[in-house]
């Protein structure tokens, strides 16, 4: 019995022990150095690979004493899901050529993974005399590694906040091989940037050089970034799987060279931008976050008109810069003019150097009384990164003259006092009164006592109940605070999302307008600038305002959808859903703020 119990205890305990060890193995970090061989001739090549099972940063290779690096580092990433388990592998590869005979020690390489520093074990390589037939000449993978390089060219490494930065991804290919196809493995997210992809319509190969050697290159991707946060910002790498045809030393029956297909993973690597904040010194009080080189104007469609006619006043900013990321100044118009909500007009295109075009607010103005109405000068300030100075532009004062129409109360008083005339005596101030007026009777139908008389007499009494009912109805509506808030919130949501509604069905234009509407709403409500606009900042501010967590998460998810829409397909149903969700979220936020 004792033996049977021991047996069952062993059977029950064994799966638990093996399962826990398996879990530990899956979560254990592995970082090791692999050599293609530990003994080679001086005319042979050595391939060194540093492989890890988790992604890391700050990789430092050993000095490779006694060898010359002829290729590398080339980076490859492999990630897959098998039976619900993720398999990840990242490798840095080098091709080395020995410089002398002897025994050489390849020292440790280091890398940081999850805040910890890991090191490889050193290994010894023996280099002998040259061999007659080197068995480690360039392999297909070696040729592919040497011949493919993905580079991210950044136009500026230390831009100002909200200054345009262009990133161009170029694939350099050696003339020795040919690329048949490629597919993206990992697209960068561009966190803390406002990004706009510039479509590459044709992948035309051009001649160039890479590290002094002749290469052909193809532009695969262009993107314009506007940093929304100061400090060091990282641009995530772009990773591609490239399918190539590599020539071999073999020939076919007709003497043609035989090619071998291979696939390689290339990455552009991380790039870091040092974003400078806008200077605080000499910053104008009316600065609204505009960065670039602009022109500013205020114009009207008419300067003379009649009362109850309308005119258009346009506030316009044109030039190059972050045209979609700031608010236009508002004109100060006389209170006697009826002014409607402005209609936003945007004609902006994004090229390789950034946004250019113009944005404008069109105001419809309707005067009610005749007279002269001045539209005072307004100013617009922006920061020019080329000169590193703030510039303030002011518009000219515009006078609107209303020619015909009723006079205002103040105008009547002035007119009556100024139009007084003295009566000049003519010598005929007194006349005789006619004694026989020749009056006639008007008839027997008298007004007093008629049906018309009684109708007009009792009509006001009939209107009293109607007036009381109307008053109570208006009072009930006014006392409905929640209902009024809902109506006001829905009206506000329609105001900020009107442009997005017009663009339903056009994915890019819709999500740009939706993102701008969400930005403008928060800037109007919370008085925050574009430079402070990040999802973390929004979450913190809304939480401090005691906004429900679900509403905050809904707002943040909308912003994420706007970012994802630039590189992901979105259906019309999804756009309609996001529009309705944005209207609901703005309404809820407005009631709480």
From TrEMBL:
Signal peptide (from-to): 1-24
Spans through the membrane: 453-471
Pfam families listed in its UniProt record: BatD
Keyword entries, A-Z: Membrane, Signal, Transmembrane, Transmembrane helix
InterPro entries documented for this protein: BatD
RNA-binding as UniProt keyword: no
Key word Transmembrane helix present: yes
Name of this chain's protein: Oxygen tolerance
């Amino acid at each position: 019995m004792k033996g049977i119990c021991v047996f069952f205890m062993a059977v029950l305990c064994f799966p638990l022990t093996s399962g826990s060890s398996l879990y530990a193995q899956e979560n254990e970090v592995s970082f090791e150095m692999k050599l293609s061989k530990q003994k080679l001739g001086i005319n042979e090549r050595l391939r060194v690979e540093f492989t890890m099972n988790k992604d890391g940063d700050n990789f430092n290779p050993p000095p490779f004493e006694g060898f010359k690096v002829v290729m590398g580092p080339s980076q490859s990433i492999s990630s897959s899901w098998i039976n619900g388990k993720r398999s990840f592998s990242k490798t840095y590869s080098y091709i080395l050529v020995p410089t002398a005979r002897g025994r050489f020690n390849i020292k440790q390489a280091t890398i940081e993974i999850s805040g910890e520093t890991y090191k490889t074990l050193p290994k010894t390589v023996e280099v002998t005399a040259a061999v007659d037939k080197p068995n480690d000449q360039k392999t297909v993978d070696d040729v592919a590694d040497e011949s493919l390089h993905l580079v991210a060219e950044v136009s500026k490494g230390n831009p100002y906040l909200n200054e345009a930065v262009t990133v161009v991804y170029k694939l350099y290919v050696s003339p020795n091989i040919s690329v048949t196809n490629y597919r993206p493995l990992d697209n960068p997210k561009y966190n803390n940037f406002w990004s706009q992809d510039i479509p590459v319509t044709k992948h035309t190969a051009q001649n160039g050089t890479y590290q002094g050697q002749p290469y052909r290159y193809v532009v695969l991707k262009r993107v314009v970034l506007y940093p929304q946060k100061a400090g060091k910002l990282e641009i995530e790498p772009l990773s591609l799987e490239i399918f190539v045809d590599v020539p071999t030393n073999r020939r076919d029956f007709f003497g043609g060279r035989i090619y071998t297909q291979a696939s390689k993973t290339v990455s552009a690597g991380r790039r870091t931008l040092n974003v400078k904040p806008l200077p605080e010194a000499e910053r104008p009080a009316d600065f609204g976050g505009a960065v670039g080189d602009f022109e500013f104007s205020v114009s009207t469609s008419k300067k003379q008109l009649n009362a109850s006619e309308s005119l258009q006043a346009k506030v316009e900013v044109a030039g190059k810069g972050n045209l979609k990321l700031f608010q236009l100044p508002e004109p100060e118009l006389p209170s006697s003019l009826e002014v409607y909500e402005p209609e936003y007009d945007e004609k902006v295109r994004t090229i390789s150097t950034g946004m250019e075009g113009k944005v404008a607010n069109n105001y419809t103005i309707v005067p009610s009384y005749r007279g002269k109405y001045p539209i005072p000068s307004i100013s617009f300030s922006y920061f020019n990164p080329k000169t590193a100075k703030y510039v303030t532009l002011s518009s000219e004062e515009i006078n609107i003259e209303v020619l015909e129409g009723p006079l205002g109360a103040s105008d009547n008083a002035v007119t009556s006092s100024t139009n007084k005339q003295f009566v000049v005596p003519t010598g005929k101030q007194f006349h005789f009164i006619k004694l026989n007026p020749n009056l006639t009777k008007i008839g027997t139908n008298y007004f007093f006592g008629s049906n018309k008389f009684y109708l007009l007499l009792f009509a006001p009494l009939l209107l009293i109940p109607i007036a009381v009912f109307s008053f109570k109805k208006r009072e009930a509506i006014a006392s409905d605070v929640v209902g009024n808030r809902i109506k006001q919130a829905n009206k506000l949501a329609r105001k900020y999302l009107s442009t997005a509604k017009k663009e339903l069905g056009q994915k890019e234009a819709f999500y740009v307008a939706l993102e701008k509407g969400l930005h403008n709403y928060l800037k109007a409500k919370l008085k925050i600038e574009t430079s402070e606009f990040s999802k973390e900042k929004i979450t913190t501010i809304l939480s401090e305002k005691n906004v429900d967590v679900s509403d905050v998460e809904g707002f943040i998810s909308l912003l994420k959808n706007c970012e994802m829409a630039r590189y992901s397909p979105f259906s019309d149903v999804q756009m309609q859903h996001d529009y309705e969700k944005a209207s609901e979220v703005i309404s809820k936020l407005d009631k709480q703020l």
